[in-house]
Structures are given as C-alpha cells and as structure tokens.
User: Fold this.
Amino acid sequence: MTLRQMKSVTMSAERILIDTSVWIEYFRGKSTGLVNYVGAIAKNREICVPRIVLAELLQGAKSEKELVVIEKFMDAFTILDQTDQTWLKAGKLSHELKKKGKNVSLADCYITVIAQDNKCAVLTLDQHFKDISRHTRLDLIDADAVMHRK
Assistant:
C-alpha cells in the first residue's frame, strides 16, 4: 500500500484497530513518528482494541506496574468483543489462506475478522496483515511508514 493509499484509509476510517505490534512500539516510545501518529488518531478517530490484543499486551508485561498501566490505559479506548461467528470466520479465513500457501496465525485471522465486523482499519507493524490484505478485504495502515516520520 502506498503512502497516499494509507493516508486515504486513515482519512476515511472513523475507527482504527491498533494491533499489538504497534502498542509495543508505542509503549517503548522510541519512534516519535509513531507516538505522534497514534496521538493524532486518538484526537480525531475512535481507537479500537480487541480483547485478544489486550491479552497479548498483558501477557508481555514485565512487572505488576506494567499490568496496571496497560489495564488503565486500555480503559480509554473502545474494547471490541467477538460475536458467535467470530472464531468460525477466523478459522475459515485461516483455512483459505493456507490453501493459498499463506501461513498466518489464527490470532491474526481473528483480529482481521474483528476489524472487518466492526468496520475498522488496522494499524499494524505485523507483516502477516499485508498477506491477509492481499487475499481479503482489509483496510490496512502500514505503521512502518509512520514510524519513520518525525
């Protein structure tokens, strides 16, 4: 996806699902471009976080303090939940991708389905989402390009 296409998706998407990979970099604070970009999204768009992303962040916490910070931080955003069909759709998507020679984690397929069902663009650093977006309708914002902005 070109930078112009990314800007177009960002400008048109009212809801942005931020993936675990982006939150990790955000919390590290080493990419001013990414931190500023997420801040701008928070001011102008609805930031959405699926429960699986919250669980992944909590799993990776290095201390009790980080656990508390993550829990409180996430209270500021829309938490997305699954429907009765979410895992079924994720399994089917994973199956379809495997038939095309793409090995993508079930978690990434699940996040894709959550994003699609909730009409969210996905901001991610995870390259698997690029593979997914080539084979299904997924509005993707490539955070790699954003990270290199000042």
Q: What stands out?
A: The first strand starts at residue 15 and ends at 18. The CA atoms of residues 15 and 119 lie 7 Å apart.
